[in-house]
UniProtKB/TrEMBL annotation:
The keyword Phosphoprotein does not apply. The lineage of its organism: Eukaryota, Metazoa, Ecdysozoa, Arthropoda, Hexapoda. The keyword Protein biosynthesis applies. This is Translation initiation factor beta propellor-like domain-containing protein. Residues 141-260 form the Translation initiation factor beta propellor-like domain. Keywords: Coiled coil, Initiation factor, Protein biosynthesis, Repeat, WD repeat. Residues 500-534 form a coiled coil. WD repeats lie at residues 198-240. Transmembrane segments: none annotated. Pfam families: eIF2A.
Length: 537
């Protein structure tokens, strides 16, 4: 398995040794740090956006090679693969355009409404129901993949910027973002409400990441030379660790046991989640700041033989098998299935082994003190991992996992004193029932959200159809009215023309009558004068 680190070039490192396997430079020359990187769901392709130039997709199967370039969009700024398929990729541009591109057909599949600001990050929610994008002006845009419209706009509280954006592809529709003001905020895309918000750092937040085994656990890094771990359900900081250099990138390993952080001086640090006081390994990855870190998808390990060539697209059966493998890799084990994981271990442990999570101030610098050890234990419980002295046996997560020991009990807790926790069958059944009930409740909530969304979409479509029908009726009415008005005007013009001719004839008759009368008056006047003249004589 690889993990990629990006600065001005992208390096592919072996995990966990950190040895460089490939070093890839996009474009023809180095102009600045790479803007974004994104693994495909099967872990065989990596999409990267250089500082300037076109988006490139490289394949890491067998050997590193350039697979495809996306030349249809000028000045791309970020890119991200979908969670359910590697066929589609979201692209953001510097001029505010967000599109979904089909890699196989090399055509634009969807084009969302344009914004006026520079797109800095893009991603997808669980099941790819929404595409999320952040802008330089501080807006976070949530686009619906069903209606292709803008569903909602978020803002980090008390901030006008977005420095990092991350979605949780494993569970629920969670979106988290950080700002220059040191604030991180988390939303649920189903309700479009803030679920968690905290002043995480005294300087800009540089990166955030979800734990792949516990979606309620997040880690954030900042330019204040600290990284912190938070529980979004309890709304508190679990641990806060000071480091020697500013941390610029962070990502969890697929199994959630380790996480890697990149620093401003080009170093990469590997931490064990069971002991976060000191890194277990560090190495110089780049000469400049590490801008991005991303672990390769675990599906590449278990399904590498399913796809014969990087240019071939996986069939539906392969996609389903990869999806199933991803679900197993999310941390579901036999213990978790019985409900005896981190949420129920207190019932099976003795009173001296049950740990209650204390409140930790978000600016506390943990040192090698008893309180620090307690915080580390709390973190183990939240992540779902025990320390090296406490391990639970579980079912294999992939087909290539280690063979399961036949004699292993499904519920075993072993420490240096060889303490065995016995559980009766009734306890197991009760725990299994609780686990099933919890799973049913979560499933019902997801179904309710989906039904609500579909009903809202159906209502919107019905309203749109009714509006279109009304507009069509209005247009037809206007056409009929215009036709009738035209006929009326023609009839009026004809009637006016006939009336004018009759008036002219009457005028001519009147003129002739007036002339006759004038002649009669003149003749009578002349006769009258003559008569008066004779009488006077």
């Amino acid at each position: 398995m690889f993990f990629a680190s990006a600065s001005t070039t992208v390096k592919f490192h072996e995990y966990p040794s950190g040895n460089v396997v490939h070093n890839y430079q996009p474009g023809t020359k180095v102009e600045g740090p790479i803007r974004s990187i994104s693994w495909s769901r099967d872990g065989q392709w990596l999409a990267l956006v250089p500082y300037s130039g076109i988006t490139e997709i490289v394949s890491v199967k067998n050997q590193l090679k350039l697979l495809n370039t996306i030349q249809d969009f000028e000045e791309p700024s970020c890119a991200a693969f979908q969670n359910t398929t590697r066929k589609h990729i979201a692209l953001g541009t510097k001029n505010g355009q967000v599109v979904i591109y089909d890699i196989k057909t090399r055509n634009t599949k969807k084009r969302f409404p344009r914004t006026s600001s520079f797109i800095t990050h893009v991603g997808f929610t669980a099941k790819d129901t929404h595409c999320v994008a952040s802008c330089r002006n501080g807006d976070i845009l949530l686009y619906s993949n069903v209606t292709n419209n803008l569903s909602c706009t978020f803002k980090v509280p008390k901030s006008n910027s977005v420095t990092c954006l991350r979605t949780n592809p494993q569970k629920r529709n969670l979106i988290i973002a950080g700002s220059n003001e040191g604030i991180i905020s988390l939303w649920d895309s189903n309700t479009n409400k803030v679920k968690f918000c905290i002043e995480a750092h005294k300087a800009p937040v540089t990166s955030v990441a979800f734990s792949p085994v516990n979606s309620d656990l997040i880690i954030s890094t900042g330019s204040d030379r600290q990284f912190s771990v938070y529980d979004i359900i309890d709304n508190k900081c679990i641990a806060s660790i000071s480091v020697e250099n500013n941390i610029t990138a962070v990502d969890f390993s697929p199994d959630g046991k380790y996480f890697a952080m990149g620093s401003q001086n080009g170093f990469v640090y590997i931490y064990d989640s069971r002991n976060i006081q000191e890194p277990i390994h560090s190495f110089q990855a780049h000469k400049s700041a590490v801008k991005h870190l991303a672990f390769q998808s675990q599906a590449d390990v278990s399904n590498s033989s399913s796809i014969s060539d990087p240019t071939d697209f996986p069939s539906n059966e392969i996609i389903e098998s990869i999806h199933t493998s991803n679900s197993v890799e999310a941390g579901d084990s036999f213990i978790a299935a019985l409900g005896l994981d981190k949420n129920n271990t207190a019932d099976s442990m003795g009173p001296e082994e049950s740990i209650k999570s204390p409140e930790v101030n978000k600016w506390t610098v943990l040192t090698d003190t008893p309180s620090g050890h307690n915080s580390t234990k709390i973190l183990h419980e939240k992540i779902g991992l025990g320390d090296s002295r406490k391990q639970f046996s579980s079912t294999p997560k992939t087909s290539n996992s280690q063979n399961l020991i036949p004699s292993a009990s499904p519920i075993v807790n072993v420490n240096q004193k060889s303490i065995t926790v016995n559980a009766t069958m009734s306890d197991i059944q009760a725990a299994a029932k609780e686990a099933v009930k919890e799973e049913l409740r979560s499933t019902v909530e997801e179904l309710k959200s989906d039904i609500k969304f579909q009903s809202m979409h159906s209502t919107y479509q019905m309203k749109r159809m009714l509006l279109d029908l009304q507009m069509a009726m209005v247009k037809e009415f206007i056409k009929v009215e215009n036709f009738c008005n035209g006929i009326k005007d023609e009839i009026t013009i004809d009637s006016r023309s006939d009336g004018n001719s009759s008036l002219l004839e009457e005028n001519e008759q009147l003129k002739r009558r007036i002339e006759e009368l004038e002649q009669q008056i003149a003749s009578l006047t002349q006769d009258h004068i003559l008569q008066n003249g004779e009488n006077g004589v």
